[in-house]
């Protein structure tokens, strides 16, 4: 049987995900390496940049949520209980972790509570 070394990671969280390299060397020839990847599944975590955004008529408002999760979560915007759909007035932008809702030319009917989930 083969004997070797191992590493045990306990209470793994999303920050331990990534590529790990094991390198062996005995002074003869070049060292030998093997790479492995660790993926950590975790529930979505959402942080907002601002919880209250002050704006006025005609301004542009940008609401931002920072979202982490694995597998990558779907992000939706709601105003009250209704899903927000993108159009010329309301635009959504999804980055890797940064998700934005942009309200162009804010009007009084746009005021209210928005959530990303």
Automatic annotation (TrEMBL):
Keywords: Disulfide bond, Immunoglobulin domain. This is Neural cell adhesion molecule 1-like. It comes from Hirondellea gigas. Transmembrane segments: none annotated. Coiled coil: none annotated. One of its GO terms (molecular function) is axon guidance receptor activity. Residues 44-117 form the Ig-like domain. The lineage of its organism: Eukaryota, Metazoa, Ecdysozoa, Arthropoda, Crustacea. GO terms for cellular component: axon; neuronal cell body; plasma membrane. One of its GO terms (biological process) is synapse organization. Pfam families: I-set.
